[in-house]
């Protein structure tokens, strides 16, 4: 399984954030593109978990979060594993980033993605074969 782009949690959350209209517009465009070409998009179980937790924390119903996670699960999903965790630990040390960011990066690598869409890592930076793109930078 291989996707061209890996989506970080913040992209998915902004697509549903009624209080961040500028970012919501950009995130919705990314999600709509993902629905048109699902074979190009990857995410991880961790992204789905984080989306669910933060979506519910924002006051939305658990049932709605669960339905959305089910929909997102039709894209390429990278499973959590010991191997992925070990790769994340190595990436954390190599790039001096948080473990959480390293786990996203490890999952992006595992998916075969060349682009990681995220606002959490440095825009334009290459981490091996994966380049970070912050879609909210004008």
Compact description:
This protein is of the alpha/beta class and 138 residues long. It has helices at residues 9-14, 21-36, 45-57, 62-72, 82-95, 99-111; strands at 5-7, 41-44, 76-78, 115-117, 126-127, 130-133.
CATH superfamily: 5'-nuclease
CATH topology: Rossmann fold
Shape: globular
User: How many domains, in number, for the residues?
Assistant: 1
Provide the β-strand percentage band.
5-15%
Radius of gyration: 14 Å
Q: Provide the CATH architecture.
A: 3-Layer(aba) Sandwich
Count the beta strands: 6
Structural class: alpha/beta
Euclidean distance between termini CA atoms: 32 Å
- Secondary-structure element series: EHHEHHEHHEEE
Description:
There is one protein chain. Helix content is 53%, strand content 14%. It is α/β, with parallel strands linked by helices. The protein has a single domain (5-133), classed as Rossmann fold (3-Layer(aba) Sandwich). A 6-stranded mixed sheet has the order 3-2-1-4-6-5. Strand 5 (126-127) and strand 6 (130-133) form a beta hairpin. The radius of gyration is 14 Å and the shape is globular.
């Amino acid at each position: 399984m291989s996707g061209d782009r890996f989506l970080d949690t913040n992209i998915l959350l902004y697509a549903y954030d009624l209080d961040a209209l500028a970012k919501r517009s950009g995130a919705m465009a990314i999600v709509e593109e993902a629905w048109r070409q699902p074979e190009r998009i990857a995410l991880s179980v961790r992204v789905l978990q984080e989306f669910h937790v933060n979506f519910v924390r924002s006051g939305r119903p658990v049932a709605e979060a669960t339905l959305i996670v089910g929909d997102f699960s039709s894209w390429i999903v990278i499973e959590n594993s010991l191997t992925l965790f070990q790769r994340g630990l190595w990436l954390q040390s190599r790039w001096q980033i948080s473990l959480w960011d390293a786990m996203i990066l490890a999952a992006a690598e595992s998916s075969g993605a060349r682009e990681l869409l995220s606002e959490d890592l440095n825009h334009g930076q290459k981490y091996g074969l994966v380049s970070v793109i912050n879609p909210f930078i004008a």
